Every structure is written in C-alpha cells, then in structure tokens.
UniProtKB/TrEMBL annotation:
Residues 207-310 form the Pirin C-terminal domain. It comes from Cystobacter ferrugineus. This is Pirin. Belongs to the pirin family. Residues 313-341 are annotated as: Disordered. Residues 315-341 have a biased composition (Basic and acidic residues). Residues 65-140 form the Pirin N-terminal domain. InterPro entries: Pirin, Pirin_C_dom, Pirin_N_dom, RmlC-like_jellyroll, RmlC_Cupin_sf.
Amino acid sequence: MKSPILQTLPLGSPPWVTADPFLFCVHHDDHYPAGNEHLGPEASLDGRNLGQDFEGKDGWRMYHGEQVPGFPGHPHRGFETVTLVRNGLIDHSDSLGATARFGHGDVQWLTAGAGIVHSEMFPLVKKGEPNPTELFQIWLNLPAEDKHAPPHFSMLWSQDIPRLSFTDAAGRRTEVTVAAGELEGRRAPPPPPRSWASRPDTDVAIWTVRLEAGATWTLPPAKNPRAHRTLYFFEGEALKVADHVFREHQILAVQSEVALRLEAVGGAVEVLMLQGRPIGQPVVQYGPFVMNTRAEIQQAFNDYQRTRFGGWPFGKDDPVHPREEGRFARHADGRIERPAR
C-alpha cells in the first residue's frame, strides 16, 4: 500500500519550507518580559543587535524594532500575509492610513496586491508581568491576474473563527482551529475578495490541530484532490501519522486526497496544516516582492521608489497604539471594527 507521506524534512528554524500556493511560514514564539512606559521590554537591550535582533537572547527577540519589538514600516507587492496570533498583540499601521490592534486568537489577512507599506509591532501592554507573544505569519501567493489587485485587509476576529472539538473512543480530545477553509460544515470567515483562497475551487485551508496526550484524530481528505497539503509538527514529544512515528519535529508533505490518522504519542501534540491548490505559475521573489518575472520585480522597486505605495501617513516607522486601547481595526475607508469582548 502506498504511503500517504510523500516527503519529510526536519522542521528546523523558521522560516519553514512551504509548497505552492504558499511562499513562507514563520512561527514567532517570544517570552517577552513586563512592558515599560513605551510598550517595549522592561529589560536591558545591551548586547542586542538592534534593528536585526533575531538571536533569541533570554527567550525573546526585538526583530527589526529598536524600542518596541516587531517590524517597522516595510513594503510588499504581489502576495498576501496571513497572521494568526495565538497569544499577545500586534499593532498594525499601513500606507493606506489603516490601523489595527489584534491578537489573542485573531487573524489578519492582508492582500498586498499592487503594493502596500505596513508595520507590525508587538506592544508589551502589561506592566509588572510577562507579555508572551506567539504567532504564525504565512505568505500566500497571488496569481498573475491578481498581483496588482488593490490592497485590502480583513480581520478575522477570534470569536468568529471556528474551533471544533473531537473526542476519540478513549475520551481524549482533539481541537481544530479553522483560520481558512471548512471542516464539518464550519467555514472560516471570508478572506479578502481577491485572495487565492476566495476562489471556491482552490481549497485553501489553514488549520491548527492540538491533540491531547494519546489522542487520535483522522484528518479528512481535501475537497480538491489537486491540493498540496503540508503538516508542520511543531510542538510535542512524538506524532504518529498513519503507521509512521516521528519523534522529532518535522515538515510532512502528505497526500491530500486520503484520510490521515494522527496520534499524539506521549504528551500533547500540535500541528499546523497548510493546504491549497497550487497556482502553478513562475515565482520570482526578491525580498518583500513576489512576482512572475524579473522585469516585474524591477518594476516593483521602481514603483516603490517613485510612489512609496501611497506614502507613510504616520510620524514614525514603528507606531503603536495607547496601552489602554483594545482590539480594533480602522480600515482605509474610515470604517471601524471592534470585536465583541
């Protein structure tokens, strides 16, 4: 019988290897200390390579931030970012004038399209106690006809994201969070209108799966048998997939058209699943731009230098919102969303 596992790779340090239509996947897991008056860490930054701090000293990183951790204003064109915040907060600002604060289970889905500049800062809003921050950022490609779509973001608030619980014959539970796609009739909130995931036949799915110690659960087949499906075993002691036991964290490319039995061996296990029908077009990437040809990459640089993708309407590259501000999104048209508390 043919194995449902097509390929395995050691998980390693992020960014993790992805398959078309995905471009990039990174897992940020930082154990930030208490925050100071500027929403940065109440800790010495001596010895850190500020502006390029990715070493994980003391269990956390400043990334490109110099006062507040995160990623100050930077451009994108030609793809989408999908940001799943499992813990902590992100302060978003962009060249369209939109802003947001989201986290604690929320997902932001941003179509960069023709071009956008945005910042993603991690405000440490708690004083006197730690500010753990954990998130996935995933890049999803756009087909050629949508690479110049108008920039747009959708907020998928935590209370609207399906979370399904399954119990096996031994009473052990598996919980599945559906950030994109559909499981047992429960569909994630819609992505932006020009997303590859908005097409009904692409079968894009982004799920996190947590199995209790000893739990078993069967991952159902994809709706589109052409979809690529990749499992990222990133947390736990050991994972059994079909008849194979993996005792080290792995990336597993698996058949999408068959049901796949998962089992947490030892302690609890967590898996990220990325799935989607491949776009099947040439990919040329240079830094923050992903296009189909080298000429389009050069044009992206020229356009950014000429227009700054709309400019930057903020007084600093790394804006953050006031400590007391709750979760919200202010869109470019002025519309304001606030999730139910």
